[in-house]
Design brief:
Elements: H1 4-8, H2 13-22, H3 36-49, H4 72-84, E1 90-91, H5 104-111, H6 114-117, H7 129-146, E2 150-151, H8 158-172, E3 179-183, H9 188-201, E4 204-208, E5 222-227, H10 238-246, E6 250-255, E7 273-277, E8 293-297, E9 310-314, E10 320-324, H11 331-334, H12 347-385, E11 389-390, E12 398-402, H13 407-418, E13 420-421, E14 423-426, E15 429-433, H14 440-449, H15 491-503, H16 525-528, H17 534-537, H18 549-566, E16 570-572, H19 578-595, E17 603-607, H20 612-620, E18 624-628, H21 638-647, E19 652-658, H22 670-679, E20 683-687, E21 707-709, E22 730-732, E23 750-751, E24 755-756, H23 773-806, E25 825-828, H24 830-836, H25 840-849, E26 856-857, E27 864-867, H26 875-896, H27 914-918, H28 928-932, H29 952-957
Parallel strand pairs: 1-13, 3-4, 3-5, 5-6, 6-7, 17-18, 17-19, 19-20
Antiparallel strand pairs: 2-8, 7-8, 9-10, 11-12, 12-15, 14-15, 16-22, 21-22, 23-24, 25-27, 26-27
């Protein structure tokens, strides 16, 4: 029977033999039926690439805690058993997480559609127009509802968005103080995360009961208000916002978007920044995520926004086209000058939330919100009738009631007898939240728990009722006026709109995405299957431990498996992006040094070749970045490293390195590097971005790593979703484990291996984006330790094959000591530019005409392409890419030889749209066929880009980040 690994790994044994032969690594003997000679040759290739000092023999996996690989059916059966250990009770806990109804047309055509979930970040905007339009819809939705001028393309979650808002206020405020005021009514998870982030940066947090009239301090750089408050209370914060402005600070408001369809927007109240989550716009709770957070700012703060921002520009024909705007804001580029380490978003979930608004429109959203408000008010009436004291008169969906000494008893009875989850605030107080899914029967059962009538006749709500909302804060202005929020009401129209957008995009379901450093591997359908099961999707992140036994088992197993394959002792799955995993790891190092009394250890050494987020994360962890040089081969310069260690010996906190390096090679001296840092009292952070080249052959913990983050959205098959979701667990040795992220509302303090973590939280939910952990669990379970090792070898073989085949056309910039690369190779296009005038951009855009997403451009070296085929691609697709690159080189040479003018040839005019080929007279010196069908095979299945090359500079000069009028496309 064919195994899952055989389905996942694209190159067959015979393909591998052919590729090894081309590399001169074949055994030369005929392949046996069991592929043994090919396996021997592949092992030989890996020994040439991976340094012997860190090489792990296959026999090391004999005592693996990872079970023998399961079949797809077996893995699904085990997931069903785990799901059965979860209990889906009625969630009325609130705190930013609510039951919601995902329209089936969105679940089927977005969440479960590989056209959406296998796409990557839109760095090639010409082939990302559908996704970018969806994100423009998201930004428009957020900006309209918050009443602010510009919204970004999503944040990681609400609590991290609040933290980013705090940092924005610090750099944009004219105040010189480090004081930041936090509303006492904020969500508890947000308060905890703010403490984590502020402590590392020397920010002083002052908590004040702002709704209760507490005065602001004389000096502050910002104030944060929860609107409505965690208690559900709605109050007018405009006076507090004005006072903050008078003190020289900025005002950040965390607002519930559904409530904003009925109550005054933060912008109308004077807020500078609005943040929050879009979870209740059709995105399942999923035990905490992934969900798209949001951030919007007033005019004048656009260039301070963290994260990604989609804007409108024009293409070569002057037609509107979407792109990422202000890309110099990307933290990859700004490195130690970065103001945020966020380098991703929650695109897939932002698309779902945006399409929820597109499908329902303003009237539908208002009706949903009105229903929630009316039901909450009805529950209040029934509870008051039963003699229960309700804390606040004005609220939207959440009420707090006082039951002296009885809170625990009532909450327990609600869970055990009625299957309803209420929130115990303290011994005397209970919080109750109503959402879109709450029905009248549930309200009656809640009322009965508090002594309400056992029997009741239910009537109809009054039309247009706004429940218990305060009259003075009712919303007066319009929102979602753009036609896109009005024309897709039928399922037919919605389905066709989503299909239209998907057709404008390029994702893995079309072909290879050879992005170096991004690992665009297959996200198998079986891995994805469980995430929409109610037992995983319908769980509140703060549900009691008795309801989440299946999740806790799955998390414990995945933590143990990840610890084994990395050589670490403990793993926290809380970070919901690689950037947050980096930050968590560095905060663990910081906590370790502080616990040892080494407060002076604040210097972080980072090689010049490192991922840009490394430097940004170090700054946000309160560290000072010192850059270490690299030699001509792309390796860390040992002499410079030793000099920097000596110069900073007493202050050395850590070294951050990526392994294999960002240059795509296994550095031979890695053990010597890590030993030098340890001898000086520092810790070693190994960036796990390139773990796909290491699994089964070496382990971070064995080569000297103390802590690493892992990218589950790369190595462990969670899909990138067009630029998110991601999961970035942090793994560490035992001495750092106590400093890994904890959470005040976690169901369990104990992690795999018996470790207890005590570091501050780095995401809003205890286990981060737990809703997609079944994907990585299924990947490891079905691959097994042997399959993971085979996948690594296949990825390294494919990269070396591409490097060898293209070496005569494009120089391969870096190789290891034996001339081998790791799982990716860097092709140097600078000589091509010098000889022909054709740039790396021209090559990237011409690849679109060949039906490819371009490799990573100009990272980590300007003027290069970094190619990573992954283990998923078959030899036919790899050969197709090689053929395209060879033909592009020939076209560049032909241009240099005078066949075509330098300013009018297939490369500088690429990509070519269908309209550009048929509209008007053809005046170019090359034929239409040469433009559209450079290889004959494209005739059978051509991907047509919807726009021509986009003018990047125009979009930055003319910043438009909301839906353009329909007339613009006429």
């Amino acid at each position: 029977m064919v195994s899952f690994a055989d389905r996942h790994i694209g190159i067959t044994s015979s393909d591998q033999d052919r590729m090894l032969s081309a590399l001169g690594a074949s055994t030369g003997s005929a392949t046996q039926e069991d592929g043994s000679s090919t396996q021997d040759a592949l092992e030989s290739l890996m020994r040439q690439a991976v340094p012997g000092s860190i090489y792990t023999d296959p026999s090391a996996n004999e005592d693996s805690v990872i079970p023998v690989a399961a079949s797809e059916a077996e893995a699904l059966a085990e997931l069903r058993a785990l799901a059965a250990c979860n209990t889906v009770n009625t969630p009325m806990i609130g705190l930013g997480y609510y039951g919601t109804i995902t329209p089936s047309v969105i679940q089927r055509n977005v969440l479960e559609n590989p056209s959406w979930y296998t796409a990557y970040t839109p760095y090639q905007p010409e082939i990302s127009q559908g996704r970018l339009e969806a994100l423009i819809n998201f930004q428009t939705m957020v900006a309209d509802l918050t009443g602010l001028s510009t919204a970004n393309a999503s944040m990681l979650d609400e609590s991290t968005a609040v933290a980013e808002g705090m940092l924005l206020a610090r750099r944009a405020s004219r105040a010189t103080t480090n004081v930041f005021v936090v509303d006492a009514g904020a969500f508890p998870q947000t308060k905890a995360l703010l403490h984590t982030r502020a402590e590392a940066l020397g920010i002083e947090l002052l908590e004040r009961d702002l709704a209760g009239g507490a005065e602001l301090p004389a000096e502050l750089f910002g104030v944060f208000v929860q609107y409505p408050a965690a208690s559900g209370r709605i109050w007018d914060p405009s006076a507090v916002i004005e006072a903050a402005h008078l003190a020289g600070g900025l005002a950040i408001v965390a607002a519930d978007l559904l409530a904003l369809t009925l109550i005054a927007s933060p912008g109308s109240l004077g807020a500078d920044v609005a943040v929050g989550t879009t979870q209740r716009f059709g995105v399942p709770m999923g035990f905490g995520g992934p969900h798209a957070g949001y951030m919007a700012v007033r005019s004048g703060l656009e260039r301070q926004l963290p994260g990604r921002l989609v804007g409108v520009s024009v293409d070569a024909d002057g037609k509107p086209a979407y792109r990422l705007s202000l890309q110099t804001r990307e933290q990859h580029i700004r490195r130690e000058k970065a103001t945020s380490n966020i380098c991703t978003a929650q695109v897939l979930l932002a698309v779902m939330a945006a399409m929820y608004a597109v499908y329902h429109g303003p009237d539908g959203l208002r009706a949903i919100a009105s229903g929630v408000a009316q039901r909450a008010a009805l529950l209040r009436d029934w509870l008051v009738e039963a003699g229960v004291e309700v804390a606040h008169e004005a609220f939207f969906d959440t009420i707090e009631v006082r039951v002296p000494g009885r809170a625990a008893e009532i909450v327990g009875r609600a869970h055990d007898d009625a299957g309803i989850l209420l929130r115990q605030v303290d011994a005397d107080t209970i919080g109750i939240s109503v959402d879109e899914t709450t029905d009248i029967t549930t309200l009656h059962r809640v009322a009965v728990l508090f002594g309400g009538q056992q029997e009741r006749v239910f009537g109809l709500f009054g039309a247009g009722s706004t429940g218990a909302l305060p009259e003075g804060l009712l919303r007066q202005d319009e929102y979602l006026t753009h036609p896109v929020f009005h024309v897709h009401r039928s399922e037919t129209a919605m389905m066709r709109y989503l299909k239209c957008l998907a057709d404008r995009d390029y994702a893995l379901d079309r072909g290879m995405i050879p992005l170096g450093s991004c690992t665009m591997k297959l996200n198998a359908a079986t891995e994805m299957a469980a995430i929409t099961w109610p037992e995983f999707a319908g769980i509140h992140p703060f549900a009691p431990a008795s309801d989440v036994g299946g999740y806790l088992q799955l998390i414990d197993q995945l933590e143990a498996w990840l610890a084994e394959v990395t050589g670490y002792d403990a793993v926290s799955l809380q970070p919901n992006a690689g950037s947050q995993g980096e930050l968590a790891g560095l905060l663990a190092i910081r906590g370790y040094h502080l616990a040892n009394g080494d407060e002076q250890r604040t210097v972080c050494l980072i090689p010049s070749s490192a991922h840009g987020t490394n430097a940004a994360s170090a700054v946000l962890a309160g560290m000072k970045v010192v850059v270490v040089a690299c030699d001509d081969l792309g390796n860390v310069d040992l002499d410079d490293l030793r000099a920097k260690i000596a110069a900073n010996a007493d202050e050395l906190a850590a070294l951050m390195i990526t392994y294999p390096s960002t240059h795509g090679v296994y550095e031979q001296d890695v053990v010597e590097i890590t030993s030098a840092v340890h001898e000086a009292g520092g810790q070693v952070y190994v960036d796990g971005a390139n773990l796909n080249a290491l699994l089964g052959f070496a382990r971070f913990g064995d080569l000297g790593g103390d802590v690493s983050h892992l990218n589950l959205h790369k190595t462990f098959a969670i899909p990138h979703g067009g630029g998110g979701p991601g999961v970035g667990p942090v793994a560490a040795k035992a001495h750092l484990a106590p400093h890994l992220p904890s959470h005040p509302l976690a169901q369990s303090d104990v992690h795999a291996g018996g470790f207890t973590f005590a570091g501050g939280p780095v995401s809003a939910a205890p286990y981060g984006s737990a809703g997609i952990l079944p994907i990585s669990w299924a990947y490891v379970r079905m691959m097994g330790a042997a399959g993971l090792r085979d996948a690594t070898a296949a990825a390294v073989l494919s990269a070396n094959y591409i490097a060898e085949r293209l070496r005569g056309h494009y120089p391969v910039l870096y190789t290891g000591e034996n001339g081998r690369v790791a799982h990716e190779c860097i092709l140097d296009l600078r000589p091509l530019k010098e000889a022909t005038g054709i740039s790396v951009d021209d090559v990237a855009k011409r690849l679109i005409d060949f039906g490819f997403h371009a490799p990573t451009m100009s990272f980590p070296v300007a003027g290069t392409l970094m190619v990573e085929p992954t283990e998923s691609e078959d030899l036919g697709e790899i050969e197709r890419f090689i053929e395209a690159m060879i033909m592009i080189k020939a076209e560049a040479d032909a241009t240099a030889e005078g066949r075509w003018p330098a300013d009018d040839n297939p490369l500088v005019n690429a990509p070519h749209t269908a309209v550009s080929l048929i509209a008007g007279e053809w005046t170019h010196p090359y034929t239409r066929e040469e433009a559209a069908y450079p290889v004959h095979a494209l005739i059978a299945g051509k991907y047509w880009p919807p726009v021509r090359r986009i003018d990047q500079a125009y979009g930055d000069r003319n910043l438009v980040c909301a839906c353009p009028p329909v007339e613009a496309f006429a």
